[in-house]
């Protein structure tokens, strides 16, 4: 059965998945880029952007798991880019250049409709205005038996968690504090939702934890 999986979602020690004031210069908000420091050096991250080399080990193992058996992605509109409100035009096509690292259909949740965008390398961005269940249905169909990766950000993950739809969540806790921003567990009672920590592995750069629902 198709699972909805979160991988490599980085949070600060104080629980933020992005810093404050997201904008074109700070896609992850002020100070937020440091959340991803653990992944930048990995072989998986380098390969995502056509590079070679990179570190293997715990961080790379977790990064690589996030791409195994994924047939579609779901993102929130703020993760897709810095533009808020109605799309002024069709110029913005994501942060990731002509060949984004998804290589599958990607369903972007937004209240503002927009035509789908076909990118190089098998990525197509579809904009879904009918809510989280509609996005999941479309992603499930597109994934064709494979799993769906929920990329983020926080607002999107929280909705799927509250609806009890996230099967597995790998978080990388980075050794930074952000003080403010998008708090992943704000208003979320993960215990009541049936989640428990099923794995925890430290590396030199992050503490990796996996949450899954009790079966
Ligand atoms: N730490 C990490 O590993 C990680 C991973 C991914 C992203 N991020 C960061 O997280 C930040 C974005 O997170 P975020 O919490 O601000 O926002 P988000 O979840 O990416 O997007 C929220 C926006 O998506 C649209 N949306 C969400 N749910 C919807 C629904 N049910 N129906 C229709 N539209 C819906 C709304 O946009 P509109 O109403 O404006 O259309 C909403 O304001 C970025 O800084 C990104 O870089 C961090």
Distance between the termini: 14 Å
Count the beta strands: 11
Low-pLDDT parts are none
Largest sheet data: 9 strands, mixed
Count of discrete alpha- or pi-helical segments spanning 4 or more residues: 6
Residue share in β-strands: 25-35%
What gyration radius follows from the Cα positions, in whole Å?
A: 16 Å
Output mean pLDDT: 96
Please identify the structural class as seen in this structure: alpha/beta
The helix fraction, in percent, is 10-25%
Tertiary shape:
globular
Instruction: Kindly report the spatial arrangement of strands forming the biggest sheet.
Output: 5-6-4-3-7-1-8-11-10
Task: Encode the helix/strand succession as letters.
Answer: EEHHHEHEEEHEHEEEE
Question: Which ligands does the model contain, each kind named once?
Answer: NADP nicotinamide-adenine-dinucleotide phosphate
Structure write-up:
- It is a single chain.
- This protein starts with a strand and ends with a strand.
- It is built from 6 helices and 11 strands.
- The model has no long low-confidence stretch (mean pLDDT 96).
- A 9-stranded mixed β-sheet has the order 5-6-4-3-7-1-8-11-10, with helices on both faces.
- It has 215 residues and is α/β, with parallel strands linked by helices.
- The chain binds NADP nicotinamide-adenine-dinucleotide phosphate.
- The site of NADP nicotinamide-adenine-dinucleotide phosphate has 28 residues, from strand 1, strand 2, helix 4, strand 7 and helix 6.
């Amino acid at each position: 059965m198709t699972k909805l999986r979160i991988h490599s979602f980085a949070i600060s020690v104080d629980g933020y998945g992005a810093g404050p004031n997201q904008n074109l210069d700070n896609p992850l908000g002020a100070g937020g880029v440091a959340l991803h420091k653990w992944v930048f050096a990995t072989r998986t991250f380098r390969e995502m952007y056509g590079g070679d080399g990179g570190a293997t080990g715990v961080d790379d193992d977790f990064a690589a798991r996030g791409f195994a058996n994924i047939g579609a992605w779901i993102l929130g509109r703020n993760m897709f880019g810095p533009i808020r409100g109605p799309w002024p035009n069709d110029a913005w096509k994501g942060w990731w250049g002509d060949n984004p690292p998804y290589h599958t259909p990607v369903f972007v949740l937004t209240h503002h409709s927009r035509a789908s965008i076909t990118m190089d390398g098998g990525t197509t961005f579809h904009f879904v205005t009918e809510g989280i269940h509609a996005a999941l249905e479309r992603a499930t169909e597109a994934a064709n038996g494979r799993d769906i990766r929920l990329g983020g950000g926080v607002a999107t993950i929280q909705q799927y968690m509250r609806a009890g739809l996230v099967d597995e969540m790998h978080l990388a806790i980075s050794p930074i504090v952000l003080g403010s921003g998008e708090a992943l567990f704000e208003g979320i009672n993960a215990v009541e939702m049936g989640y428990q920590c099923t794995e925890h592995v430290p590396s030199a750069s992050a503490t990796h934890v996996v949450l899954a629902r009790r079966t």
